[in-house]
Amino acid sequence: LHLVESGGGSVQTGDSLSLSCVGSGRTFSTSHMGWVRQAPGKEREWVASINWDGVSTYYADSVKGRFTISRDNTKMSVYLQMNNLKPEDTAVYYCHARWLASEYWGQGTQVTVSS
Q1: Residue 26's pLDDT is what?
Q2: Measured by CB atoms within 10 angstroms of the end CB, which terminus of the chain is less buried, N or C?
């Protein structure tokens, strides 16, 4: 499973940004998908995840109420809508897939939020 993120950029506090992750591979539609971020000098932090059919979603407390994860299996895509962005959201955001015992990562997309 190959994952490619897009949509990162530089915004100001309070702005919104939408990330996309397109997958290739026949396991996408049955994979548990998520977003993980890594800020400079910090370890990777799980942000949000969604089960294979999009029914169940999960969020870190730090983004709950501001971020929304969704997926479209017909487009082999997963999205992260980020609203009311804060400087502490600045990080490289990675798309993550888990299928059975295998894990897959995208190359990451930078999100920078200035105050």
Answers
A1: 86
A2: C
